[in-house]
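Here is an idea for our session: we take a single protein and study its fold together. Start from the sequence, derive the backbone structure tokens from it, and show both lines together. Once you have written the record down, we can walk along the chain together:
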Amino acid sequence: MKRIGLNWLWAALLALVAGCSEPSSGSGPSRWGAWSDPRTWPSGQVPRANEVVNIPPDLGVVLDVSPPPLRGLNIYGVLRFDRKDLELSADWIMVHGRLEVGTPQEPFRQRAVITLTGNNPEEDQMGMGTKVLGVMGGVLELHGEPRRGWTKLAQSTPRGAREIAVLEASGWRVGDRIVLASTDYDPRQAEVRTIVAISGNTLTLDRPLDFPHFGEVTFGVDQRGEVGLLSRNVVVQGDEASAGSGFGGHIMAMMGSVMRISGVELRRMGQRNRLARYPVHWHLVGEARGQYIKHSSIHESFNRCITIHATSGLEVVGNVAYDAVGHCYFLEDGAETQNLLEGNLGILTRRPEASQGEQPVIPTDKNPATFWITHPANIVRNNVAAGSDGVGFWYALPENPTGPSATTTIWPRRTPLGEFSGNVAHSSWDGLMVDRGPNRDTLEPETTVYNPRTYPADTQNQYNDAVNPPVVAEFKNFTAYKHRGNAIWLRGLNHKVVGARLADNAIGVTFASRATTLEDSLIVGDSANKGFPRNWEFRGADGRSLPRPWASGAGPIQDNFPIRGFEFYDGKVGFRNVEFVNFQPLEIHNAQGAYRTVREAGALSYLRFTSFDIDSRNFAQGARFTNAKAVYLPPRPEPTPEELSKGQSADGYRGGVFIDLDGSVSGRRGHAVVLNHPFLLDTSCEVRPEWNAGVCGHGYARLHIRSESGENIGPVSLTREDGGRPVFRMWGAPNNPRFFGATVIKGRAYTLEASGGLPRRLRLRLEDSEPGDFIHLALPYSGEPYIYRDYWIDNSNRLAQAASRAEFEASSGDRYWSEGGWLYLKLRVKNEVGRDWAVLDVCSSDLCR
């Protein structure tokens, strides 16, 4: 992400001089010898402790003994581990030729341990620092025993148990260290144990478990906790001093290098707070097809897990990562494409802890993702993000690549999705986040619209469907449970989530999007997985943990936080064929039972108290409910002065409406479900108090009111001229007090008044409508108005005053009426194919022109 100077370039050039291509079949050193044989070495002496050892290009050395600790090791020829238990220790190792511990065809089956010991942070070996196993144009082959990397629990395991049953334990052994993932909201309920006995698929552990671990498929959602294998027979590690300093070892391959790793354990790796110092790191390698890290384990990492930087075509398959600081599986700049991430497991991805001297390497590490993906054109399949302080899967797409990859020829935010399928996230704040990509200059997260297009580089037509057709990004078969935030949050256009299985999340799905749907999915509010609340937490009366269990100061639980399944927002968005299970109010209390209240629940709701605009055509279709309150829209009183000072007007939320297309929600086909607010209801609506909503047969649209000449005119009031004249008072959108929006009933008459007075130029826009839809609008006005229809299309299209009030009423919106200090307008959508809007500009002079 950040630039690290030109050391990498200088190092790469040196590597090319040394010969960077992988040896072809039959090539190799002209002579071979054993490490322990003095005749092998040009000096005639076996290397001694604390030396810098050089293996020249024409020499192949078989490591047949464990040498004394070395100062450094330069491999220009070949170093091959003999087939015996061996240890190699050095401050640093540089591979210009070939380092081989086993091969893909013949994995190493003895025990090999490479320990990196360099503890001088100022030392710099060819741009890669120290404590490094660096591949500078050479070939690194590390291949341990092929063993199953992870499995799942076969049944739930209680706290205090010393035996666990797993689905498959073949190949695991007594003495292996394993990690059990948390199956609750708290990712720190993950725990490591050692196997002391095995009987079939039952493992006996060295000590009792501190937490229960869930192991069932409940209400159709697979919540069987993962169990990962940490032990491997080939180990690359930082020395013991790494644990105290956070200055661990790292493996780094530069351009022109080849690195293949399988069946390897990496521990005490990564260097705290240091850019480009990660356990395994392909750095600006470019095309890397045939290279990989597979079926390996990474644990106790001080800085990430696996980093892919400006490298494409890698395979990252079947790995286990546990206890890492910062983004774990990390695609760095946004230029990384065609990589395969499949079948990997990540457990406990931690944010930097300032109290321990940890700082974010990049700003987004403060909200770390187990999988941090900066370009959509990669394959992300069947992975598990099992516990993070931040996000499970984060598509953090920059506008253009950052850091050394910076270019304006690559557009991640408009590139079609490669593949996202079969992935699982649990025990984090958010499960799948598609938003908040890094700003190109600061790398701070910013609002990100993912808008995949046929021609991503066509910046002029990024919203022109005819010229640059959209490409639907389909997120398939995602499972997510136990998130304190969202299971899924998407922002953008033309997304589709299919086959999702979600449970026990604060919020199931929120689409801050347009043209986006959830289809053929299942959302469960409260499952059989009750979790394990801490003593200080509020909990359900049935003992279950809550997504938001904390108190607000010394008071009761914070806001009771009603859980929701599908949360409407923005739009047009909706769902088809979705089942909702177990969304019911729940009695909650503190650990002593002294305080009791009710946590509300609703299968369907709106993004709570948003001030931003929403689409009145948002829809539901094919809903099915089992033991679930279909709708709950939390009541929202008028905002307080403090909320207004923070831009929290909730104007959007107070206009919440969605259409029940087939009646599967309300029993009324084609009816609207609207917030229980007088401005949206009339006597024909059926109010359902338990939903805090009404069911109405009206058509609804959105009215936008904007001060185009810059005056702050708010707050603004809109009065419906029927049914007791209910009023909707608007304070404006956050950071834009000159823009206001309201949901209105089509065909009705309204009066608009602005407390700050009307601006010199006012734009009124009716949208989310059909050709022929209209509203009448009256506003106080003096002087001669200059009114234009579709001004930006035809700036000569000024409206004339009607000859009479009757002519105005009968017009198609091309006339206005003025009398008694009031101006009367008709916003009517033209009868044109594709039209869903009508716009009038009202000017106090000929300012519009």
The chain has four helices and 71 strands.
